[in-house]
Design a protein that fits this description.
The complex is a heterodimer of chains A (331) and B (323).
Chain A lengths: L5 E12 L2 E13 L4 E5 L6 H9 L7 E10 L2 E2 L5 H7 L4 E4 L3 H4 L6 H13 L3 H14 L5 H4 L9 H13 L5 E5 L7 H18 L2 E6 L2 H7 L2 E6 L2 E7 H6 L4 H8 L41 H5 L4 E4 L2 E7 L3 H6 L1
Parallel strand pairs in A: 3-8, 3-9, 6-7, 7-8
Antiparallel strand pairs in A: 1-2, 1-4, 4-5, 9-10, 10-12, 11-12
Chain B lengths: L4 E16 L4 E17 L3 E5 L6 H8 L7 E6 L2 E2 L5 H7 L3 E4 L13 H12 L4 H14 L16 H13 L5 E5 L7 H18 L2 E6 L2 H7 L2 E6 L2 E7 H6 L4 H9 L39 H5 L5 E4 L2 E3 L6
Parallel strand pairs in B: 3-8, 3-9, 6-7, 7-8
Antiparallel strand pairs in B: 1-2, 1-4, 4-5, 9-10, 10-12, 11-12
The chains are: A alpha/beta (331), B alpha/beta (323).
């Protein structure tokens, strides 16, 4: 097997402010193969967005810092690159899509200009050719009358259309990898369905691998091949998507899945499953398992010793960090 | 639906004027709510579902008279409250409360939880200070906030706890109806579950009726007795929950149900992906508002708004076609 496209090894990103240190990402490892879609899923504050910002080296300056670990992209350690080196990669070999397209587009430049800019800078082509590429990209993301809309400004597009523009921009330089942070969260469901369908079509066409960051288990189930579940800055479980949903192993993943309100699938309980308590503060070091205070299976060892990753029996690609994995899986 | 309705809304309309220019001349009208009718029985949960801009929140605000309707009537417990004076309405709101989406914006940051929940009690019930405090502490405990919550400020609570506080405030005067406007949309799923369970328990315990406004079909399917689907200011389908989810009749309802991603990778189903965007409510399409995105639209749909038809005793939909 060749080296994966992206390999994140023991990444730790901390935020330093007046009140102390926040351990936003705490020893995270995962990888992404070429042309694969991996989902990173978790609730607010679990570190999924900080992971994306760390890979892209877009952490808020002075405040956030990668304090350890490696981010190997095509064999190159992004963690050690300078800003000019990073700039040559961002938007070129790594595309990105953020949640709120209105804040990621420049409101005073036409969208044609914004898409063409990336192409001009990274590919060194003429303005005319860059514009032609921008038009081609708008066609690709199915924006009607692409030729005319090139000169429109972001405010003239609806939310769904803006997200299409973002996708066009992210893919304009034929990146090997796309990082999409909650790309459909701000959209209505019917528009979300359009955008997800488009992303999958384009992925098939361009062969870009995708890191999809989302809180929505439904979106993960429908788009990803492999899933990383995060909790309190750490990976708690990783599995191929079917295995994860068929047999979630970590108590947190199980709790999360059971708390999703949905009707049809199976006999519905009257009450939803609650995960008692709250996410722990990331200001204090957590010696044991971060989920232990909310976990019904927790024993003393869980509170004192950080669990290592263990494979689920019979599913080698399915791993969870839980001291009580075998007991949990019996249930 | 059993018994006399606690809330009856008929042909409710709210048209906002769009004003532009120096003279603030009305240049257009947004028909945010355009002829909505429904009834809600005591102890029942009716969910209003639809996408952004369909007018569902406006309906909630109209019912509490936080904004005034352009036309139509709202009857609460048989009484027409559409034209009640401000003062009369203020008293009426003891029985008619609202929980807002954003627990960060709907709580006064300078008041303690005790004051926030105690304010309605103070306004309407002639209780002594000690009694009032006991009542407020009882309410805070009921929504699952600890005894120490009384003296805390909103910023000291998490999102889920803040929403519990909003619910405690709404419950303070033992209302009969609570309008809940996207009460869990701002919360993480595991916290959503806590708040939804609390709302279900309170409903069973206190016999509350909910008008539950949401865009999330999973939540709707969990909470609702009946569901009304809105599109561009109108109800396109209303039915008991089971009927709506198992045999939806309106093409928009079908598309909406099929568009919601299911947390089950082995579920294979036919997805209806609608083309295009929701049209602007300033210039709604002629005829059926949905015809611009409807995969089944025929000439008649472009010309004539379909009158609501019955598909069962409690099931009505507004579509020309029998799909």
């Amino acid at each position: 097997m060749t080296a994966p496209l992206l390999e994140v090894r023991d990444l730790s990103t901390h935020f330093f402010n007046q009140d102390g240190i926040t351990r936003a990402v705490d020893g995270l490892s995962f990888h992404l193969e070429a042309q694969e879609t991996v989902g990173i899923v978790g609730e607010s504050g679990c570190g999924k967005t900080v992971t994306a910002l760390s890979i892209l080296k877009l952490l808020p300056p002075r405040l956030g810092r990668i304090i350890g670990g490696r981010i190997l992209f095509e064999g190159l350690d992004l963690a050690g690159l300078s800003e000019p080196q990073m700039r040559a990669i961002r938007g070129n070999r790594i595309g990105m899509i953020f949640q709120e397209p209105m804040t990621s587009l420049n409101p005073v430049l036409s969208i044609g200009h914004q898409i063409a800019e990336a192409v001009r800078i990274h590919k060194g082509v003429s303005a005319d050719r860059a514009r032609a590429r921008a038009r081609q990209m708008l066609d690709l993301v199915k924006i009607p009358d692409a030729g005319q809309r090139l000169d429109d400004y972001p405010h003239q597009f609806s939310g769904g259309m803006r997200q299409r523009v973002m996708i066009a921009m992210a893919l304009a330089c034929d990146p090997k990898m796309l990082i999409a942070d909650e790309p459909t969260t701000a959209l209505d469901v019917t528009i979300q369905a359009q955008v997800l369908k488009l992303m999958l079509e384009l992925k098939a066409k361009t062969g870009a691998a995708i890191v999809l960051i989302t809180h929505d288990l439904g979106v993960v189930a429908e788009t990803c091949q492999r899933v990383v579940v995060m909790y309190a800055g750490r990976k708690v479980e990783e599995a191929p998507v079917r295995q994860l949903f068929a047999r979630p192993a970590h108590p947190y993943t199980r709790g999360l899945m059971a708390s999703v309100a949905r009707g049809k699938a199976g006999a519905r309980a009257k009450r939803l499953n609650e995960i008692p308590g709250m996410v722990p503060s990331l200001r204090e070091p957590i010696p044991g398992c971060a989920f232990a205070p909310r976990c019904q299976f927790a024993i003393d060892r869980c509170r004192n010793e950080r669990p290592q990753f263990e494979a689920v029996a019979g599913e080698p690609a399915h791993q969870a960090a839980c001291h009580r994995l075998s007991e949990v899986l019996k249930l | 639906m059993s018994g006399a309705p606690i809330l009856e809304v008929s042909d409710l309309k709210k048209h906002f004027q769009v004003r532009r220019g120096f003279w603030r001349r009305a240049v257009a009208e947004v028909k945010a709510v355009d002829g909505v009718s429904f009834a809600l029985a005591a102890g029942e949960t009716l969910c209003l579902v639809g996408e952004s801009g369909c007018g569902k929140s406006t309906v909630g605000r109209l019912i509490l008279r936080l904004i005034d309707a352009t036309s139509g009537t709202i009857r609460f417990k048989g009484e027409n409250i559409t034209a009640l004076s401000r003062e009369a309405m203020r008293h009426k709101r003891q029985a008619l409360q609202i929980v807002f989406q954003d627990p960060y914006a709907s709580l006064n940051p300078r008041l303690t939880a005790g004051t926030i929940v105690g304010e309605p009690v103070e306004n309407f019930d002639a209780l002594g200070r000690a009694q009032r405090e006991a009542r407020v502490k009882g309410l805070l405990a009921r929504v699952g906030l600890g005894a120490d919550a009384f003296h805390k400020y909103p910023f000291e609570f998490s999102g889920g706890q803040r929403q519990r506080l909003g619910i405690a405030r709404a419950l303070a005067l033992s209302p009969a109806l609570i309008v809940a406007d996207e009460p869990v949309s701002a919360l993480d799923v595991s916290v959503q579950a806590q708040v939804l369970n609390l709302m279900m328990d309170l409903k069973d315990e206190l016999g509350l009726a909910y008008l539950f406004i949401s865009h999330d079909l999973g939540v709707v399917e969990h909470m609702a007795d009946r569901v009304a689907v809105m599109y561009l200011g109108r109800i396109v389908e209303i039915a008991a929950k089971e009927d709506l989810f198992t045999s939806p009749r309106h093409p928009y309802t079908r598309a909406l149900i099929s568009a919601a991603p299911l947390p089950d990778p082995s579920a294979k189903r036919e997805r209806i992906v609608l083309e295009g965007d929701v049209p602007s409510p300033m210039t709604p399409p002629t005829g059926c508002h949905f015809h611009t995105r409807c995969p089944f639209a025929v000439a008649r749909c472009r010309e004539e708004y379909p009158a609501p038809r019955a598909a069962g005793p409690q099931h009505h939909f507004a579509c020309h076609l029998d799909l």
